[in-house]
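ok trying again, last paste got cut off:
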Amino acid sequence: MILHSECPLCSSDNIKPWMVCSDHLVSHEEFELYRCLSCGFVFTRQYPGEDQIGRYYDSPGYVAHDDKAPGIVNRIYGVVRKLMLRKKRKLVGKISGVKSGRILDIGCGTGYFPFTMKKAGWMAEGIEPNLKAREYSRANFGVVVNDPSAIRSLPSEQYDCITFWHVLEHLHDPFAYATEVKRLLKPGGICIIALPNCSSYDSEYYGKNWAGFDVPRHLWHFTPETVDLFASKTGFIISGKSRLPFDVFYISVLSEKQKGSALPFLKGMTRGSWFALRACFKPDKSSSLIFILRKSS
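nice, full thing came through this time. structure:
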């Protein structure tokens, strides 16, 4: 197990217990979240190492690794995924200014996003630690997907865009990945990072039952302010930011389910609608956010 005695983001030892959350998906173990009083970063204080974390993803309910995950919530996820794939494709084209470039999707799961970009004329590749998901992507989409260890051997300055769609919060060493991203991006290339926002309206409402914490799979729990600090510490600037408007409904339904609510779907959709409406007026309180990063000069 890995144990942090100081803040992983700013290295301050001024850290305090913040919340205790349960793993609702696999183990039902409890994990402590700590908050840094110096920079505000929230992190899972103790969690399994890379050689042990795999078993916490081993569930038929983990939809990112299993295209046939059961349940109504995961069926909703599949419908929303189709809508978001189009939105993501358009976003990459708009922000990058490139019609058919080269893109690397880190943590690509079963490969739907790189396949979407491949159909749009891009040279698309993926990085994915889960063997089952890699094999699914190759067999069904013909997308080249490598184990994370391969990232160090990829050619420098070859990618117009590198994406992390709800992935950075899973990485044991996000700083090492940031170094590789800087090396791999072409001059003027962009990095797109989508993250759950632990200062969102829905996070504040659901507290320890907020599905966005997802311990121990999520190691880091970002806010817009701590993303900005992470970017500056790793040699990037944030050049844009936008909401992921559908995530709040999926997260709210899951959170109601984790609370043990009666009628979790109805309550989650109703409360998710209210959170989404409020976030229209205050985007930094959205359930999930997209950040556009460019290498600082």
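cool. The chain has a mean pLDDT of 92. The first strand starts at residue 2 and ends at 3.
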